[in-house]
Structures are given as structure tokens and as C-alpha cells.
Amino acid sequence: MSNQRQQDENSKQKQLEQFSVSDEGKALTTNQGLKVSEDEFSLKAGDRGPTLMEDFHFREKMTHFDHERIPERVVHARGFAAHGEFQVYESMKNYTKAGFLQDPSVKTPVFVRFSTVGGSRGSAETVRDARGFSTKFYTQEGNYDLVGNNIPVFFIQDAIKFPDLVHAIKPEPHHEMPQASTAHDTFWDFIANNQESAHMVMWAMSDRAIPRSLRMMEGFGVHTFRFVNEQGKSHFVKFHWKPVLGVHSLVWDEAQKIAGKDPDFHRRDLWESIDQGNFPEYELGVQLLTEDDEFKFDFDVLDPTKIWPEEEVPVKLIGKMTLNRNVDNVFAETEQVAFHPGHVVPGIDFSNDPLLQGRLFSYTDTQLIRLGGPNFHELPINRPVCPFHNNQRDGYGRQTINKGPVSYHRNSLASNTPAPVPEAEGGYAHYQEKVEGRKVRSRSDSFKDHFSQARLFWNSMSQPEKQHIIQAFSFELGKVMNKDVRQQVVDMFGNVNTKMASEIADNIGANPPQSEESQVTKSSPALSQLHTKMNPATRKVGVIAEHGVDSKELSMILDKLKAEGLQPEIISTKLSPLQGSGESLEVKYTFQTADSVMFDAIYFAGSKENSEPFNEQVRYFIREAFNHKKPIGAAQDGTHLLKEEKLKGQPGVITNEDSKTFVEAFTQAISQHRFWDR
Ligand code: HDD
Is 402 assigned a catalytic role? Predict the structure, then answer.
């Protein structure tokens, strides 16, 4: 490995290590370095007397604690992050001069923060919502941030509406309910009165909004950006992250139950995967358009409520990101990281998408209140790995000690340095797009078709996915108290599909829509999760067993499942090791600490003892897993219970009586994710 390459991939980690501290084994001191002799009792005038003002140790400790919290993000407050690296497959020099996209041997450090959008910092993670997918590339030319979502379009077309959208999504101000949910009146009132949201609402009501794992969802830059190459030629570009494990979701009932059983479900999944060396991987894809093709489509390429269907503009996979290190401290890294779509490097530029243009203002502004001043770029997680010099000075929490008298440009005292760098030598120069027009507050007519792509999305769904969308609308609108708002939404989505809207109307006691449905017949198969990659790797299998089980055979099956990349974990009545015919086996959960919703599949090993309370628990597990369409397996004494429950022979229910190669068949079923045809 060359020195340059080594320096690149470790540069961020080395930088962070300079700021890392281990307190273990050290003497307790004040922040001034004074050793402290006592940390349990405040200084008092007499054993039973009042605390003294003089107690600087007490005051320092208490004051720091009193100031520990910072404002949570106004959106995307609930997030979780990891470190990793990115490597391009081949030079992208024909399209962009971005340094980190040139050399396949260079590994660029990255920091990725995933988030829900609407909920507070402590809210549950499996709620119905878009997921943020923000990546900070620490490149040698400065930080590049790709601040995207797992949904490729947005609710609104102009950033000036963002505060309205967010006010409508958040808990209603008079009673602060509901938390982390769009199932309430103000959200749907906003939707019905801002119909540009139709396409994104279709995505939000689909399975995309309840991902199985942060490792199993796509990411999108959403806006149209620009790539600019060394020759100054520009292409429009849309960014995609494609998860190597495929795109998979929970079912709604399951998602709601997990929100209670394990509100940290997604971060736990990410943390454990990285901890175990199962590093999440995503390929970076780009859709590219020449400037000549800008007006070739029946939508405006600047409109953030539109996708470029992959069948029309193919996604070229250009590199891979691997998340391989958990954070050391969530506050210092995950909470203090500051993303900004305006953090770009030479070779990447903006389009005139009015949503993007507004974002370019909002992100620095929000960090000023959230992180308390203009020096947040000095926080370790936000520092670029390349040097940075300018004439900005002072402000709260300034850490850099800038030497010398000069802090202005132009100057002679420092030979006019720090000096601007010509474009040819790496200085950033904005793409010289020609613009002209009158100052207007308006929206281009080319942004006014709100339903064609919402309809395209609907057309692209499989039957079960369509059913889930109808159920999601019915759930959400069922929680809307105002009947008029319900009806407005039904009428709005009648523009997408009459049958869909009529079924929703029927479920929520509204009238069928009067609107005319879109005539779009096109579909985009790439949008259906049924066409995603099916990969069993890292799937969790809940293995139910009891003392007296044939542990010899069970450990053989466990080994085989592990060899297939699955993660079997034993659930039993007690945590004590499972005794049986062979070696004793470790029990990870009891019926109190586990639930079928925490697993991708259930394997019932059974027990010789077969007590009725035990069987009752097993029935509950298996029934629930069955209702959530999950694979269920039994190859030992467990088979009889599946027969009793009349589950044997059902799709996705695998026993050794049905298949001689049980483990292979069960693994195959798990890779299929869910059995919708039950
Ligand atoms: Fe935003 C945070 C993604 C539109 C204003 N946004 C934020 C985060 C993500 C996105 C992933 C969390 C970043 C992190 O992990 O720290 N936002 C999007 C996407 C959008 C979008 C994909 C549409 C395509 N956002 C958008 C608009 C505005 C904002 C139109 C305002 C004009 N977003 C913000 C913000 C946040 C934010 C208020 C809150 C915390 C932060 O920035 O750092 O400035």
C-alpha cells in the first residue's frame, strides 16, 4: 500500500485520536487540572450545615452538568452514525474533476449519519418516516457532504415552504402530540393543500418508510447536482446509494411493536453489525445527463418532486462505501457533526433546483444555534483532513490560535496570504451557467404536474406493496379527526388512482374520490422492492429451544446456519445454558426479553419436555412471525407443533420433512425476506 493511500484512509481517524481521551485509571481532577480529594460530599459549614459558596469543585461540576444539553436538530433529531471509507471503481475524470473520484486506489474516510426526520432525539426508530442518509467525505480537497434521504423525492418544490411543512409534521403545538408520526390532522391538512407533495407521500406510505435496517435501504441525493470536469464541461447528476444487502422493510404492525420492544432497533442493528465485523456496504450510483438533454423529459430536471426513472437514465455504479468503525462518543461525533449540502469540492456544483438553493442557506444557519457559534467547523468531527486557512477570526469557542497581525485580504504584511488559488491549481470556481430573467416570486409551469410520477410509483408496485400503501393511508387518515381533511386527501389521491383512493375512502368512512385519475401507464420496475437483491447475510434467526432438546443436532444446525451467514440466537425460558444430549448451549434471550418482531425468522427446535406453558409461548412467537410473513423452520422435535398449528406446508414454513437439505431450504426462505402469498 502506498504512503499516500495509507494517509488518506487513516487521516480522519488519526485526527480524531488527537482529541480522544481515556479517563480510565486516571486521577480525578477539576477542569483546571487540580486533583480532587472528595467527590461525594459538598463543602458545608458543619456536618449538617449549608453548602458553602466557596465550593468551586461543586460549582464547576454542577454548572457543567446544567449546560450539558444543546438544542436538538429541528428535523432529523434522532440519528445514529458510523465511520467508514469510500473507494471509486474507476476514474470519473470524463465527468468530474472531484479528486476523490479519480483514483481507485484511494480510500476516502467518511462519516455517515442516518436519522428519522420528524421525531425528537429520544423517539422510537421504526416509525413511519423518511430516513436521512448523510455522508461526509473527508477528501484531500476539503469536506464534501452528500445530505440525502432514503426517498428520492421531496414533499415541496421550494425551500420557502420548508418551515410550513415541518410545522405541519411535528407534534401539534397545542398538546404536543403525536410524537414521531405523521398520522394527525395538521400533516394531512398540509398535504391536501400542497399537492406537489403527492409523489413523496406515495413513497412515505409505502414500505420504504419502514426499513428493516439502515443497512438495507437506499440513499438519494434527491436534487439534480452538477459534475464538472477538468475541461469545464458540465453534466447534470443525481446520486444514489445502493445497499449491497438489498432494500428490505418491516411490516407496519411489526414496526409499531418494535417501537415499544426496542426503540433503538436500528442503531442496535447498525452498531452490532459493525461491532461483529459485518460491515454495511453501499454502492454509489450516478445518473448522468448532458446539458443538451435538459429538456428531453416530460418533467423538469430541476423539480425535486421528480425522479429520473432508472430505465430511462441508467444508474452507473461508480464506487463503494464501507462502514467499518463505530463512534467512540455519540455526543462528540454523531450529535456535533454538521452537514451541509453546500460543502462541495471542485468538480461538484449545484443546479437551480429551488429546494436545493434554499438548503444552501439553511444548514449553516441552523448550526449557529445548535452548536452555539461560528466555530463549529473546528469540532473534531467537522474538521477537514486537509489544511484550512483564512482571515476568519474569534467567536465563541475558538480553538485555533492564529498567529501574526494579519487577518485581512488584501495585505502586504503577509505578502497577501493566505492567498486565493486559481481554478487551474485547485481553487473552487462556480460553474459559469448563463442565467437571465426577471425577479419573480413564482413557480415555473414545468413544475406543475404533481400526479404523473405519483401514478408511475403506484404502477410500479407489486400487489402486496399496493396493499401496504392502502393500509398505510387508511391507518394515517384513520387517526385524522377532521372529516373534511380526510375527504380532501381522498380526493387528492383520486388523481393518482381511483381504485386506491376508493378503497382508502371505504376504510375511513369517506366518499369515493370525484377527481380524475392520472392516465400514466408507464411503470419503473426498479422501484419495487420485490426486484431488489435477496441476500440472507446477517439475518437474525430466533431459535426457540428448551432444556432436554437434542442439543447435539441443534448445535450442528446452528453451525450450518452460521456458515450461511445467518445469526441464530437462542431463546428459552431461562438464561441458564441449555442442557441436552450434547454440549450445553448459550441462551441469549428469555421469552421476557425477546419477541418475534426482533428476528427475521424463527426456528423452533422444540424440547423433549414439552410443557404446556412453554408451548404457549412458542405458539405466540410462531403465530406472530407467521402473521408478519416471516420464514419459520423446524427440523427437530419442533415439527409437531407446526403441524398442530396447521402451519406446516404453508409458504415459507420449512421442516426437515419437506426438505432433506433443511438448512439450505430455510436459508433460501430467509433470503426471500417475507412470504406475501400467505
Ligand atoms: Fe434538510 C437536516 C436531508 C430539505 C433544512 N436534512 C437534514 C438532515 C438530512 C436532511 C439527512 C440531517 C443531517 C444530519 O444527519 O445531521 N433535507 C434533506 C433532504 C432534503 C432536505 C434530502 C430535500 C431534498 N432541509 C431541507 C430544506 C431545508 C432543510 C428544504 C430548509 C430550507 N435540514 C434542514 C436543517 C437541518 C436539516 C434545518 C436540521 C439539522 C441540520 O440541518 O443540521 O437545516
Answer: no
